[in-house]
Predict the 3D structure of the following.
Amino acid sequence: GAVVSQHPSWVICKSGTSVKIECRSLDFQATTMFWYRQFPKQSLMLMATSNEGSKATYEQGVEKDKFLINHASLTLSTLTVTSAHPEDSSFYICSARDLGGLETQYFGPGTRLLVL
Amino acid sequence: QQQVKQSPQSLIVQKGGISIINCAYENTAFDYFPWYQQFPGKGPALLIAIRPDVSEKKEGRFTISFNKSAKQFSLHIMDSQPGDSATYFCAASSNTGNQFYFGTGTSLTVIP
């Protein structure tokens, strides 16, 4: 089956620092990757859609200058939380859609971010 | 505006019982309906999915029932087991768009 990895799985950082999260599709190519944020016991909140080689499309209310997304290749997208603050603490999950035309999104295991 | 409405929010079922989770949508352009299972601290995993050209799809103990005219679909978990305890999300998408629209999730607890 399609596998998506995320790194790191958890990170603790000081307020004001930047954190980069990587999302990789391991056994398929993904033209589109998605970044979600999830608060405890809540649904997935789409932050942005990332297309390989082009700028990401951000959802309303998501600051593109704070959450920098780069989709440099068909297997890698990165999310950088810049100048992180405690309110950015959350569970960040990426997903990828198979270039081969499969309809579904395959999710990574998530990254737990705690900003002190 | 919630594109996909999911109920119930939480569900408690006895081991061996049937768990039923329902979802409804409005956009008739949706043509792909997956269900995801999420354990605490993990990413969602695809469980089963259906397209509107069939009314039912079964994989093991998991069945999706789809009612196109009512714009509803549901997940049935037969012979529910404690290991099925997780949060379940329904979703919908159309082939003209990238985005998946997720339901609000159902927390399932299967008690021994």
The interface with chain B takes residues 4, 6, 32, 34, 41-44, 46, 49, 91, 93, 95, 97, 103-110, 112 of chain A (CB under 8 Å).
